[in-house]
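Quick illustration, no need to memorize.
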Amino acid sequence: MKYPKIPLAQTVVQLCKLKNIKHIVISPGSRNAPLTIGFTNDEFFHCYSIVDERCAAFFAMGIAQQLQEPVAVVCTSGSALLNYYPAISETFYSDIPLVVLSADRPKHLIEIGDGQTIKQKNVYENHILYSANLKLDLKDEHRLSEKEELPIFKNLENKLERFLGLQQDIQLYNEEEISKALSLAKLKKGPVHINVPFDEPLYERVEEPTVHPKPVLIDLKLPKIDQAELKDCIDEWYVSTKKMILVGVLPPNQIEQQWLNELAEDDSVIVFTETTSNLHHSKFLPSIDKIIAPLDEAEFKALQPEILVTLGGMVVSKKIKAFLRKYKPKHHWHIDEKKANDTFFCLDKHIVATPNDFFSEFLPKITHVTKSSYLDTWSTVKQHRSKKHLEYIKQIPFSDFKVFSVLLKSLPNKSILQLGNSSTVRYAQLFNMNSSLEIYCNRGTSGIDGSTSTAIGCAVVSKKQTTFITGDLSFFYDSNALWNNYVPNDFRIILINNQGGGIFRILPGHKNTDNFDYFFETKHNLTAKQLCEMFHFDYLTVKNEDELQMALKSFYKNSKQPRLMEIFTPRTENDEILLNYFEFIK
């Protein structure tokens, strides 16, 4: 077995192995060669080569999203690691563990005009759980000093540091920093950055490791639920007749069904679930905008909760945010083991626990159910909206809305659905979803970049078939995602091409002007056909409902290549059809 000669590279690789980080996504480079040699020569690791660093980081994020375990990305020095930043910010806000291993030049080669060099220390400081800035091996510095490749002042500085004891044990320092970063990524679920300086030569190898690091154990235990706070919650619960639970982004299987059933049977409780919540019950209220968009002021006041309990991550619906900011609850509790966003400007309790742990302690202590008509009232509204929803779909022409009504019913049972941002996830919010699906969307920062790469990363490690639904701007923006040798043959992309940024036609603005078309909607005539030919995807095109129904009969079946279906919808009609929907369902 081959090892990189540089002890620091050996240390990083061995500690990743000891921390059970198996998936390593590497972008080609020279400065990171010692890490690449270490990872790719050890069969313990699953190594992937992704050239585009932005795609590589989102691809790694898709793997980590599925495994709920840290995944490492490895890049060379300079601007390479800046291309990781969009994915780093997404993992930071989505609580997904990601380990960034960036190779760097030694201190004496930074800010002297050397190529492919930037200030890498703490470069992600606003969106990272921890930054470990490692030190160059003293052995290498001795070697370089003897060759007089370092300036005199640098050599003196090193001697002074050693004299003062600041570098008494660089190996131990690096081991502690690496261990801490890797542990935090796993335990706190987020991105960490390990900046690794290497000096030349970079490609030398040895037959046996020269260092044998031991991981530093870090144990971050979740505090027990505060019993006094729990009693306050119970007291507030008993005197409230209108309790609303709002669930944002949540991975599947996070709450035991018995607790969901208890909440559903409480007449004073309504549960609003977003498409990305992965929670289902016949008495819950999915499709939030369908319920609340047509309400008048009196109905909003009737809906206003006394207690709001929020779970999960980011909420897609702008309408529920606007409603709860204007009609504030008396109490807002957020249940999360890590953080609580004051989204509605009335947060009074952050209950540090998982939702399942909280409900398992809280609900058994609720000995009687408060009498209320809250659930019955809004269940009736739900039934009315559902009826009108079906009536509307029957009368509308081929459009984005019609396409989603067909697509979401076609998805294979027990498969994974990845959604693009902007219009895609918002359309999906209007439909009841198959409860056997697992649904994901990059809602940490809600950007259009990286959704395709994330979906492919998910598909690579999941045992379930993955379908990705996206809009045209998101798809073309991340088209390098297809430059990937690991895409499973059962991976499916559904590209809804309305020739521009359709969401901007829905938002307030002056439509149908040259300025709007060019700078906001960004009208185009691009198709995915040539990309599919280049990257070996089967390509289908659809232009009406009959063609769509016909294509879906075989679209998900086994194939020798991944498939992409491009559906063309009318650019100037989609917005009116969507806006008229909310009037129709009143």
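The first strand starts at residue 3 and ends at 4.
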